[in-house]
Batch of 4 targets.
Target 1
Amino acid sequence: MKKYPARSIVQEKRLHLNDLWRVVCLTLLMPLTGTLPSGLYSQNTANNTHGIFPVNQAPEKHQADFQVVLDSIQKRYGFPGATAAYKWVDGKEGGAATGLSDVEADIPMTINSRMLAASIGKTFVGAIAVSLIHDGVLEADTPISKWLGDRDWFARLPNHERITLRHLLTHRSGLPNHVYMDEFAAEVHQRMIDNTLPIAPDSLVMFVLDKDPLFDVDDGWAYTDTGFILVGLIIEEATGRDVYSLIEDKFLNPLNLRLTSPSDTIVLPGLAAGYTAENPLGFPVKTTAPDGHMVWHPGIEWTGGGLVSTSSDLARWAVALFGGDALPEQALDLLLDARPVDPSTTDIQYGMGVAVYKSGSSGTVYGHRGWIPGYTSSLRYYKDYGVAIAFQINTDIGMMDDSSSVIETMESQLLEVVLKQID
């Protein structure tokens, strides 16, 4: 099989798993920074470059300028392919695609090509949680023992007596992150061999049991997917429903996010092939087999991410969420009730599944980045301008370490070209 040439982007760095994940999780926040329902996704949809923008499509010149910038970035950095999209609060939207969705098959990327959105899924999980808090189903500041105290592992959870739902959603629980751990990498690798992925949510929690907390509750900040796995368990315990069905009923269906769905199966129609480097998890360098199915199970994320989407859907989601259409005002205020990640500066803050950037010439920005082997994503909503920009790239090689500026470059240059649309 022809392999995507990793070293054409950056000189490969062989990082220890812990170091890699720490870099990744910090980079997710740095500024400047499920199958579909039957019949919904078709080959015609996949090949229609402009198919998702028939009503509110931006003027042709704006689209062309956006395309030129995306093409130039792809040529500069040499990644396989990417999609990018923007949406204004007045409804005007546009998008572009560049490069290839499958290098070996020579299949071009289209604006409807789907990719794993990774941690951007936390914005959906956070939104469901604050919606349930608003409705009185959950309480933000009640100890999580109310919902999880009867689990046989609960007393072994670090800081278990004092953690609240708010602490989990804002990464202030002091919990370690299971994805940092060598035991997790070894388990995933073995299950990949045994074809027994994914790992059940309760089993994901097991990796942090009996570990020392990173800090006392609310005395620090540390990004932890384990905390969001617990959020998913709490949501399901409190509602008696599958968390994905709640996301679909509350957001995906009402907001017509037709190309966004749970990444809980290896069969994800319209998925672009992703490309990664040699990795401790033992994943192949290409995420898909010739039949288009994933060669590893994306369900390992669950509520740490857990969605497959398009750049256009993500931009629409950002406008609906941060523009006030997806949640009641009080619930949105709770979602955006952010505190600094670093007590020495207010530049980067974190709310309930949402990063908040306060520095820079573009004003207040809400959003999140996403990373998973083979895919990198960015979602940003520029409050002062009322516009959202999202992009997805079908590789993670060189994207989430300090050897490349591609993410920052894309965020800044796409914003620059979009803001030129202002009359």
Target 2
Amino acid sequence: MSDSFLTLDPRMNVVAWTSGVQEILEYEPGEILGRPVLVLVPEDQRAAVAAVMRRVAEEGRVHGFHAERMTRSGRRVKVVADLLAIRTPAGDHCATQITVRRAP
């Protein structure tokens, strides 16, 4: 499998999408780039996304976040994600890189 990561801007829109994530979640880059990451999140897990994004902003990283995400076909897939805050030289949180892998 290729590198599996996506990058979110400060508004939680997907701004980068690799072939590895495409393989897991089935979206072509043109279908997901610029869209809110919440299109990938089942309704019952959206509060957890808000909480983990707050942790990333505060702590700089979250390792081993277990979740389910929605594929393009509407199927749920279990994933484990590592999230990393990308900061400006001034220290402002300007993006989040998320490495995704299928959960065992």
Target 3
Amino acid sequence: MQWAYKIIDSADIPGHGPMGDKRERADLEANLNALGAEGSEVIAFDVHEMMASPNFVGLARRQKA
């Protein structure tokens, strides 16, 4: 089995800003759900709470076709 990997970072998600609100959490969840819909699985995740905003970096993988 072969895997394709992708580094994920909350800073790359449109609409995500430094102030932290429910809209931003929804943006983060939508991005993670989009990864899941394309067949990716988040395999590593590190959250940093900065200025009340959930910032993270992680690693996702999906099986190569």
Target 4
Amino acid sequence: MKVRKIDHIGIAVKSIEESRGLYEQALGLKLSAIEEIPDRHVRVAFFDCGETEIELVEPLSPDSAVAAHIEKFGEGFYHMALEIENMDQSLSHLAGMGLKIRGGVPTAGARGSKIGFLNREDTRGVMLELVQKGETK
């Protein structure tokens, strides 16, 4: 498995519109994209922060995983995303260590990426997202 870099840090928020001022005005970060991901019932906003981005994740449905996270823990840190070279090789490597992505298969993520989340129970309490850029299959 080859991790290229930390792709982004996900922050769970109730509202992107109410939260983005902190990142744009107080921190001076530039909004690079806002996108809805209907399969995950979320809307995301990305802010440029050097090589890494900050992603605000807003639930679009009360039964989304992000809504459940906010209900349990409140707004705040949600996940750390690692950009990887090859999803299939990475999943094979992780399976050999007894780790699996939630749902069993990668899914389509923001901006045409292929993503998979590891369970926080298996990663010492940190939800890790694997991101392979430019692929949704």
